[in-house]
Specification:
The structure is a homodimer. Chain A is mainly alpha-helical. Chain A is built from seven helices and three strands. The first copy, chain A, binds a DNA duplex through helix 2 and helix 4.
Chain lengths: ~150, ~150
DNA sequence: CAGCAAAGATTGATGGGATCAAATATCTAG
DNA sequence: CTAGATATTTGATCCCATCAATCTTTGCTG
């Protein structure tokens, strides 16, 4: 079964085993053709690199640097630079935690909150492929994913 | 509804509208907590950066540089370096297209094919959250996503 | 209390990636 | 043949990832 057109899919299903594997392959395809490009595009409009955008999204509540690093699956020292640049732009502030003066809590400024809001809204927009599903399929999809994620 | 634990979710559902939006938010959460980390980890084992891995996966058939660039949503000039490094490692070859000597077709070497195979297999493995679903949910999920992607 | 190991964050070095402008080689139309 | 378009490359600049080393602060232990 050769793929159609320009093969926009990542030829993922070839290696998938079982229904879960196939579903996962299709989901990743959706993400790579829709999700990631949009994330990058929206980030560019707001002049945010993907890691900066990611960090901003995680900051709906103040967090220590180390927690950010863990959540972003990257090294501690990496976060320093990302936060540096966000701080220079006034989107973020470093607060010293009073219970432990080693840790710095990163908090959004008002401007940062505004940008985060816009970013989140744009990213939450589902791709057309999902919007085009029947309402019943949409609900079923949501319900199954809720069960998967354990919500 | 404050999130539980360390808030591994990206607080995505707050901005989602409608079932499709919620489903999308859940899918992205799955991707960010499972998919991307695994992609990066598997890449590290094989000593491939994420873009190198991505490019390799797209090369199940020889492609011109420009086509790779379009598929990876990046600038043409970007691909040059990525392919340079893959070529230095002997995973890839540049072939001059005979119908147009401007274009270079990128083809996997045998070693490249082996690596690509291992990468693809590892990535195709669905996250536990999906494996844990009932077989019926798994099938339904796959079917809905097939409809969405239009397969 | 003194000393010391561990934890949180930063710095510096190195290499890869994104983006943009400019250059090169080739093709195609007229 | 020539002008313009196309595919790729180069160079410059910035950002990100990773690792080792450093600094401060904490908490433990004798």
């Amino acid at each position: 079964m050769p793929s159609k057109g320009g093969d926009p899919g990542l030829e993922l299903t070839r290696y998938a085993e079982g229904p879960a594997g196939e579903a996962w392959a299709l989901a990743m395809r959706l993400f790579f053709t829709s999700g990631k490009p949009r994330f990058v595009a929206v980030g560019q409009e707001l002049d945010l690199s993907p890691p900066q955008g990611h960090a901003l999204r995680l900051l709906h509540a103040p967090r220590p640097m180390g927690e950010l690093a863990r959540m972003m699956h990257c090294d501690n020292s990496n976060i320093t630079g990302i936060i540096d640049r966000l701080e220079e732009r006034g989107l973020v502030r470093r607060l010293v935690a009073e219970h432990d003066r080693r840790v710095k809590l990163i908090a959004l400024t008002e401007e940062g909150e505004r940008i985060r809001e816009r970013l989140s809204r744009a990213i939450a927009q589902p791709p057309e492929a999902l919007e085009a599903l029947s309402p019943s399929d949409q609900r079923t999809l949501r319900d199954i994913l809720r069960r998967a994620v354990g919500e």
